[in-house]
Write a structure and sequence with these properties.
single chain; alpha+beta; eight-stranded mixed sheet; 22 strands; about 35% helix; binds adenosine-5'-diphosphate; binds magnesium ion
Length: about 625
């Protein structure tokens, strides 16, 4: 076969394949051009999902008449000139590919009036510029996308689906340029009017518009700076996790990116507070020196490459991790409770989705759902009454070997502190053996005692384990445990690992184990039950030599199995000690599975329930 040069239109069409996949990709490129031109107002008209028409008008700097034909030419750009410029791109576009690509697969008209021009000029692909009427700024009109590329057109989905993509793109884009007003019409019906946001409050409104008010009501605002990196934005509380990664917006120097390194770092930041398979929600802006990030990594510019990826990963991870660690019970985690001021919605614990506050549920139902959540927590199970939240555990006596940072309040001490302000207040009573009712300054606090205790135990175990300080103590009477051969085998092969977790075991028969020592922290737990539960977890998770790797899961499992069960009566002192522990434990706003551990019902909300003061 003879080698031939391709005609330039075909070259453009091939190139278009990389950038222009569907109407939303056209919209993205056009919006980027408008922002690069300094526009503050964008008017977007879409017809038939963008397949028939995409028209975007901006009030930016415009294009001089002589430059109009160049704008449609391949590799023609006003944004970079030299290779050096490519090293520090500050504009969203720079490849000079978008307009020629779009023009080669649609009917494109470009109309523009430069700021200092007397009137506007308009041009179509391959034709001469003609005078036109247009205010300062630019309008790009894209009709009949892929009319000349049937293969591509075939891949377009329904009008509705394409529009959904366009709409989602515009909303995502809007978060990246808060100072810009955006109006959107679909099939000549006004659909969206996103006003420019110049202050924090307006910005939060924009975030709420795009991500839903639920998100803004259950998130933390953060700002952090280190070296040349700066991160700010909103991250959803772990209890506001999603089943999809659809609420993740990340901007690097204003450019929206989907980046593996970023996702990984953020996921790590949520490690340990997010239930398995759930996805965090966030709107985050990372700003950095443009020369430390390569934006020329992907034709559609979705991905970036960080020069120092370790540094960026570390910075993101640490920031998220420490912000979430600060989300302790009793602290008003979010500065934004106002969004959820619905009557009777118990929304004050920001980590508690309002719709889950089932004030109307009767006790039986709640018990049922509790059992569902905890599986084995049936009411009359013997184990349940083996709760271990006894005063002993909180006196610190059992834990002389623990590190000093883990101060254990005494139950009595907590009571004496009554005069001081305690965020979670003081216990009044226990409800159905499940919830602690407490009174604090704002009103009523409800605590799920198992969930709360589990988190506290877990955080302690983790800290001790990290310090290699899991102190164990011998059982007065070694406990004998009957297990399956498989479990005994697993236990035998993991004796050393168990020891590191403070469990001293020996195999005494084919199907028999003996427990000699258990972690002091868990001394009141049912040792046999604890070991057998841990073993079955290990087997279920297929963990053979990986106990060490999976140590967080093992610790979490131990914490769960060892934590106070439903229906165990606690004294007021015990309850207060638990509340104080919650206040000083990191991440105690959520249990290990990401469920909330407490809810606040303010006096005003109680008043509303009783129609008081109306
Ligand atoms: P790039 O954005 O990579 O430069 P494009 O093909 O998207 O490439 O645009 C080509 C050029 O056309 C830009 O460099 C810019 O000078 C000009 N241009 C495109 N859209 C606009 C606009 N809305 N306002 C002003 N100038 C524009
Ligand atoms: Mg561009």
């Amino acid at each position: 076969m003879q080698i031939r040069k391709l005609p330039s239109q075909l070259i453009d069409q091939i190139a278009a394949g990389e950038v222009i996949e569907r109407p939303s990709s056209v919209v993205k490129e056009l919006l980027e051009n408008s922002i690069d031109a300094g526009a503050t107002e964008l008017d977007i008209d879409i017809e038939q999902g963008g397949i028939k028409l995409i028209r975007i008008r901006d009030n930016g700097g415009g294009i001089q008449k002589d430059d109009l034909p160049l704008a449609l030419e391949r590799h023609a750009t006003s944004k970079i000139r030299t290779l050096d410029d490519l090293e520090k791109v500050t504009t969203l576009g720079f490849r000079g590919e978008a307009l020629p690509s779009i023009a080669s697969v649609s009917r494109l008209r470009l109309t523009s009036r430069a700021t200092d021009a007397v009137h506007a000029w308009s041009i179509e692909y391959g034709a001469q510029a003609a005078p036109a009427s247009h205010p300062p700024g630019t309008t790009v009109e894209v009709r009949d996308l892929f009319f000349n590329v049937p293969a591509r057109r075939k891949f377009l989905r329904s009008e509705k689906t394409e529009f959904a993509h366009v709409h989602a793109l515009i909303r995502r884009f809007a978060l990246g340029c808060p100072g810009v007003q955006i109006r959107l019409q679909h099939n000549q019906r006004p659909l969206e009017w996103i006003k420019a946001a110049f202050d924090q409050e307006a910005m939060e409104r924009r975030v709420a518009e795009v991500c839903g008010s639920d998100f803004i009501g259950h998130c933390l605002y953060l700002e952090n700076q280190a070296a040349s990196l700066s991160l700010r934005g909103w991250i959803g509380l772990p209890t506001f996790s999603r089943s999809q990664n659809d609420l993740q917006h990340f901007y690097v120097n204003g450019r929206m990116v989907r980046d593996k390194l970023v996702s990984h770092a953020l996921r790590q930041g949520y490690n340990d507070v997010l239930f398995h398979g759930r996805h965090p929600a966030f709107v985050l802006y990372l700003d950095m020196d443009p020369s430390s990030v390569d934006v020329n990594a992907h034709p559609a510019k979705h991905e970036v490459r960080f020069r120092d990826s370790r540094l960026v990963h570390d910075f993101l991870f640490r920031t998220i991790h420490s912000v979430l660690a600060g989300a302790q019970a009793g602290r008003t985690a979010t500065p934004l409770p106002r969004v959820l001021k619905d009557a009777a919605a118990a929304d004050v614990n920001p980590s508690y989705p309002a719709q889950q506050v089932a004030l109307g549920l009767d006790a039986a139902q709640r018990l049922d759902s509790y059992r569902m959540l905890y599986g084995k927590g049936s009411r009359d199970s013997a184990r349940e009454t083996e709760g271990i939240y006894s005063p002993d555990m909180t006196t610190g006596k059992v834990n002389q070997h623990s590190v000093t940072t883990l101060s254990m309040p005494t139950a009595a001490g907590a009571v004496n502190e009554q005069s001081a302000v305690a965020p979670l207040g003081y216990a009044l009573a226990q409800l159905h053996g499940i919830y602690i009712l407490a009174q604090n300054e704002r009103g009523l606090v409800l605590v799920d005692m198992h969930a709360a205790h589990e988190r506290i135990t877990y955080e302690r175990l983790k800290a001790l384990y990290a310090q290699q300080a899991v102190h164990s103590q011998p059982l007065l009477i070694p406990a004998t445990l009957h297990v399956s051969v498989r479990e005994a085998d697993a236990a035998e092969s993991l004796l050393d690992e168990f020891r590191r977790f403070g469990l001293e075991l020996e195999r005494t028969g084919m199907e028999q184990l003996r427990i000699l020592q258990i972690p002091s922290l868990l001394k009141n737990a049912d040792a046999a039950q604890l070991v057998s539960d841990t073993l079955s977890d290990i087997i279920a998770n297929g963990g053979s030599g990986r106990l060490q790797d999976a140590y967080q899961e093992v610790l979490a499992g131990m914490a769960c199995h060892a934590s106070v069960r439903a229906n165990r009566q606690l004294t007021l002192e015990e309850m207060n000690a638990l509340l104080r522990d919650m206040e000083r434990t990191e991440r105690s706003g959520q249990c290990n599975h990401g469920r909330p551990t407490w809810v606040q019902l303010g006096i005003d909300q109680l008043d509303q329930l009783f129609l008081r003061g109306r």
